[in-house]
Amino acid sequence: MGNAIGHSQQHSASGHHDHHGGHHDLESVRTFGFWLFLITDCILFGTLFATYVVLQGNTNGGPTGAELFQMPGIIASTFILLTSSFTSGLAVLSMNRGNKKGLIGWLAVTALLGLSFLVLEINEFIHLVHEGATIGTSAFLSAFYTLVGTHGLHVSIGFVWMIAIMLQLAKRGITPVTRRKVNVISLYWHFLDAIWIFVFTIVYLMGVM
């Protein structure tokens, strides 16, 4: 009888361990899948940057970047996005300390900064359209709107994703699943920050020089 109970407990513990091991493996696979997504995104942005560099001089007699770009607003956008990358790092630090409130708080700050960045970018696009610089005006502007707009779309996705993660954290707390999701969104946000530095340098700085 005792041996049967002992065997049952051992089997139960083994099953429990296998369950956690399998769960951990699943999270690892999902993280690996996200890395593959980032690699394909790098290829996408690399193609868009290459296209922009080739077409930036094709203005079709229309306005150039130097005539259109308002650098104070662009610099403000850059500062906001750089700051949001820092706050997303603080969110991960709070998570590693087991501080759920701090984690949600820093994610909220990051999301608000991301939203501010998007508002400034939309305002820039509205200004350009009012100036007569639409996506169909020239090959230069087509490449510009496609590159900058694709980055903005990624930021929008990240914003919605971050809100969803905050709701999950509020409901479930810090679990292996939510921990993986926070690590992934932070990595995604740092990636968008790095892409924007290239956009700022290649599109805006080189455009006004």
Give an overview in words.
This protein has 209 residues and is mainly alpha-helical. Helix content is 87%, strand content 0%. It has helices at residues 2-55, 65-68, 71-96, 100-130, 139-172, 176-208. The longest helix is centred in the N-terminal third of the chain and has 54 residues, at 2-55. The protein is elongated and about 60 Å long. The model is unreliable at 7-18 (pLDDT under 50).
In short:
The chain contains 6 helices and no strands. The protein has 209 residues and is an all-alpha fold.
Shape: elongated
Helix content bin: over 70%
Q: Please compute the radius of gyration using only Cα atoms.
A: 23 Å
Beta-strand percentage range: under 5%
Question: Structural class, from secondary structure content?
Answer: mainly alpha
Secondary-structure element order, as H and E? HHHHHH
User: How many beta strands in the DSSP annotation?
Assistant: 0
Q: Show unreliable segments.
A: 7-18
Average pLDDT, all residues: 90
Please summarize the sheet with the most strands: none
Distance between the termini: 85 Å
Number of helices: 6
Summary keywords:
single chain; 87% helix; mainly alpha; 209 residues
Lay out the secondary structure.
Elements: H1 2-55, H2 65-68, H3 71-96, H4 100-130, H5 139-172, H6 176-208
